[in-house]
Amino acid sequence: PIADLRLPDGSRANAVLPPISKETTVTIRKFTGITHDIVSLIRQDFISEEAARFLAECVKNKRTIFICGGTGSGKTTFLNSLSSFIPKTERIVTIEDSAELNLKGIDNLVQMEARLPGPDGTGEVNIGMMIRASLRMRPDRIIVGEVRGKESADLLSCLTSGHPGSMSTGHSNSCLEMMERLTAMILSGSSLPYDAILTQASMGINIILHVMRSPEGKRYIDEICEVLPPQNHEYRLKTLFRNKGGDKLECIAD
Q1: Beta strand 109-113 with 92-96: parallel, antiparallel or unpaired?
Q2: In the chain, which stretches have pLDDT less than 70?
Q3: Which of 1, 124, 218, 223 is most enclosed, with most CB atoms within 10 A?
Q4: Could you give the C-alpha distances from 22 to 17, 27, 76, 132, in angstroms and in order?
């Protein structure tokens, strides 16, 4: 009674049938077809020029970046924009539930998309399986469209096994909440103790940023943080940029 699919034009669709819903419901998330580069995002006040230069250098210097935010806040759009700063000579592997990433100018690109199980319950290919397979493909960077469950444990292994500069996204209300939520998801998918996850996640993720969508529909980066080594069994984040009231992203770091 529940199905997720991708239409030929790339739109994402979800269908729910009775008795799960009172009536047949089909939801289609259409894409505008507009590719937002970093310049257009600066013009729209999604990000400041200073923060854009900083993140561009982070990508070029192979700093691992994690983008978090709510549904429809612009996480994938911004991930596409950041990918334009990846050197064209690198081998990139992308992993997604539904293909949304549109990386431009990368010749050596492997794109993988998850597959749901068939009617008999077999044939599933999930994100965790694809992350493990990607490690055998000699990637320079691995980009995971979104993590939302036990596959976070495989992502952590990927980030701490010699693939700097990788990127991923997740759902949360803030940077700190994302780190804590990521820890909970890793705990559900591995036997690692809490302190080990805390340490490895802090080593694996260098920069984390939170994207917001206002009630009026405006999308913007709320904060950009650097992940520091943990202390007293807690995550430590250093806020580098913060948006005050959705008006402008300001640098507040020393």
Answers
A1: parallel
A2: 32-35, 245-247, 253-254
A3: 223
A4: 8, 15, 32, 40
Q: What is the pLDDT of residue 252?
A: 81
Q: Are 175 and 225 in contact (CB under 8 A)?
A: yes
Residues 6+ apart with CB under 8 A from 147: 127, 155, 168, 169, 170, 182, 185
Q: Given this model, what pLDDT does residue 159 score?
A: 86
User: Are the C-beta atoms of residues 36 and 80 closer than 8 Å to each other?
Assistant: yes
Count of residues making up the chain: 254
The two structure tokens encoding residue 123: 């044939």
In this prediction, residue 216 carries a pLDDT of: 87
The C-alpha atoms of residue 37 and residue 142 are separated, in whole angstroms, by 21
Give the residue among 238, 202, 208 at the shortest CA–CA distance from 221: 208
pTM, rounded to two decimals: 0.88
In this prediction, residue 104 carries a pLDDT of 74
**pLDDT at 230 (0 to 100):** 95
- The pLDDT, as a whole number, for residue 100 is 79
Q: Which two tokens stand for residue 188?
A: 């559900």
* Residue pointed to by tokens 């591995």: 190
